[in-house]
Write a structure and sequence with these properties.
It is built from 2 helices and 8 strands. It has about 160 residues and is an alpha+beta fold.
Amino acid sequence: MYYKGYRMNRFKINFIFFSLLLLTNFSRCVTIDDELIVFFGMVENQSNSSVKIFTYDVPELPPIDSIVIAPGERKEICFYREFLYAGFACEVGRIKYVFSNGKGYDCTLGRSLINESPNCFEAAKDPFLSDRLPNNGNGTLLVITQEDFEMARDL
């Protein structure tokens, strides 16, 4: 008799323990989104020309989005959600910047998480290198200057 009672109590304790564990995990899954912070990949156009930006999920496929930024404007080209600031962490494999004269820059994210395209900005302005882009408080900011417009490549 004693053995069966002990076994039953142990079953109840295990049942309660695992129930609490599951309940804790489910409640944690619900609140995890509340803890995530939204960060943006932003571009500011300081040139005298408008720039059209195409973003690609997979470099070889058609663009998933495009946006036009007029001179003097700052716009978000993508966003991501993280617990902490992670630099440029948008899920973008390629970004193409095209000025009104048809020239521009074509940047492709390589396996080493930096640009691998010869038609991108100089290394100091690689849009995929977060530590070289200023943190604007809520994401990264790539500033396109008049010099960038004048030095743009034929695409």
